[in-house]
């Protein structure tokens, strides 16, 4: 067998001037410039396949994030590729196990996200070599192979490997049928496009109507900067969609615990289906207190949860009714497999965070894998959709009738077009390229 080696980790600082249109604006981030610390794992393989991935940021954080990815070059450049791809669980543990880099977390923050980018790029190569989209590649693996991907360290008091095997084996008989169903009908989504805080009331109302016309069965509004403003905007959205249509709200970590309870209570007359990130993403007990106080309104969080251990505690504390994984916040595909298994163990639906730069393209694979091979259901589960920046990706997200169309192209979906990478490489000043 021909041996191929990793020849380089190429990093690119990519930034889009989304602050000029206030796309992505919320109570905590009023002027984000959606960005990607992008990595290409380059090899000398005869097939010419490279691995593409990124970490999503909103601007200056890219300075730090790109450097963190570059710090991993010594772990990979020059190594044989095939052994890394054959045992992705061991590869993950090897990267995370560098004690000097791990000290910066441990297993959280920019270093852990950098590891996730490299891991995701390796999965991109693995899926492309298999000729399968990531969701399908994962769904063809045996329960034993999937369990091998997960680092169960710190999880066994909530989820043991044997329990994970039971979950996966229980879902195994219906895999083929669910994969066929997914390819035929897709995976339900909801949209945040109408809800950015910087939008005018007229734009909000127009985008809510567009969401209904596009077939979405839920929308989300950003809240948390001004209560009177939130009440007015919620009232306008509710007037468009009617009394029973699900509307979620997202505070983006803006509130203290007591403030969250009071604020959500003030919005309760409009029937929010869930409140997202009501307080610090690290405050497990705070989320639990909010969840108890505002029930039956549900609490959702997870886009800023730093690792599987935080998710474990949120579930153990009954702090969330909705788990929101992010494709690039944790240590890549492997750790999100752990998060999906934890959610299945606790019977909590996963509704991923998306939007941003390429997050829809990336995280849809995890939800689709969950449906086919883990939870075996789409009930109560939605993937977030935001309608911007998809045109920059080789395999852009496709929405049909408010649902994500299951991708069939090989890879993770994280590869950005070469022209877009060149046009939006940051060189000291944000610029718009037509």
Brief digest:
This protein is an alpha/beta fold. It has 18 helices and twelve strands. The chain has a domain of 244 residues: Alpha-Beta Barrel (TIM Barrel), CATH 3.20.20.120.
Properties at a glance:
globular; 434 residues; 12 strands; TIM Barrel; alpha/beta
Low-confidence stretches: none
Shape: globular
Mean pLDDT: 94
Return the string of H and E elements: EEEHHHHHHHHHHEHEHEHEHEHEHHEEEH
Structure class: alpha/beta
3D architecture notes:
This protein has 434 residues and is of the alpha/beta class. It has a domain at 169-412: Alpha-Beta Barrel (TIM Barrel), CATH 3.20.20.120. The chain has 18 helices and twelve strands. It has helices at 61-70, 73-76, 81-86, 88-96, 99-102, 109-130, 134-140, 143-148, 161-171, 175-185, 201-213, 227-241, 257-267, 284-294, 308-316, 332-346, 359-374, 418-423, and strands at residues 6-15, 35-43, 51-57, 187-191, 219-222, 247-250, 272-276, 298-301, 322-323, 383-385, 399-400, 403-404. A hairpin with a 2-residue loop joins strand 11 (399-400) and strand 12. Helix 11 runs parallel beside helix 12 and helix 15 packs parallel to helix 16. The model has no long low-confidence stretch (mean pLDDT 94). This is L-fuconate dehydratase. Its EC number is 4.2.1.68.
């Amino acid at each position: 067998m021909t041996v191929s080696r990793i020849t380089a980790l190429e990093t690119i600082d990519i930034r889009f001037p989304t602050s000029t249109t206030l796309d992505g604006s919320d109570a905590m981030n009023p002027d984000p410039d959606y960005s990607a610390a992008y990595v290409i794992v380059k090899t000398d393989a005869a097939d010419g396949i490279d691995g593409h991935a990124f970490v999503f940021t909103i601007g200056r954080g890219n300075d730090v994030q790109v450097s963190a990815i570059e710090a991993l070059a010594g772990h990979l450049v020059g190594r044989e590729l095939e052994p890394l791809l054959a045992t992705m669980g061991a590869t993950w543990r090897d990267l995370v196990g560098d004690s000097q880099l791990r000290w910066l977390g441990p297993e959280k923050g920019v270093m852990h996200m950098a590891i996730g980018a490299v891991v995701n790029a390796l999965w991109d190569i693995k899926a492309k070599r298999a000729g399968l989209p990531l969701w399908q590649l994962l769904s063809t693996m045996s329960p034993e192979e999937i369990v091998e991907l997960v680092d169960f360290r710190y999880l066994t008091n909530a989820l043991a490997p044997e329990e994970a095997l039971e979950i996966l084996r229980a879902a195994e008989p219906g895999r083929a049928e669910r994969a066929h169903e997914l390819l035929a009908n897709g995976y339900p989504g909801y949209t945040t496009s109408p809800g950015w805080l910087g939008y005018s009331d007229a734009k909000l109302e127009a985008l809510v109507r567009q969401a209904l016309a596009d077939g979405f069965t839920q929308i989300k509004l950003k809240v948390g900067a001004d209560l009177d403003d939130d009440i007015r905007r919620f009232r306008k959205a509710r007037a468009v969609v009617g009394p029973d249509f699900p509307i979620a709200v997202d505070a983006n970590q803006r509130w203290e615990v007591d403030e969250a309870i009071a604020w959500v209570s003030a919005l309760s007359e409009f029937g929010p289906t869930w409140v997202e990130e009501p307080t610090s993403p690290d405050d497990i007990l705070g989320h639990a207190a909010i969840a108890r106080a505002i029930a039956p309104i549900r609490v959702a969080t997870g886009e800023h949860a730093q690792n599987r251990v935080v998710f474990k505690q949120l579930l153990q504390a009954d702090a969330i009714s909705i788990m929101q994984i992010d494709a690039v916040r944790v240590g890549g595909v492997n750790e999100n497999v752990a998060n999906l298994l934890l959610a299945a163990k606790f019977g909590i639906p996963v509704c991923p965070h998306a939007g941003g730069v390429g997050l829809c393209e990336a995280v849809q694979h995890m939800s689709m894998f969950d449906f086919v091979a883990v939870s075996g259901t789409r009930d109560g589960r939605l993937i977030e959709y935001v309608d911007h920046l998809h045109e920059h990706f080789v395999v852009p997200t496709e929405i049909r009738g408010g649902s994500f169309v299951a991708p069939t192209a090989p890879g993770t979906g994280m590869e950005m077009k070469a022209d877009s990478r060149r046009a939006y490489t940051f060189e000291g000043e944000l610029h718009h390229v037509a």
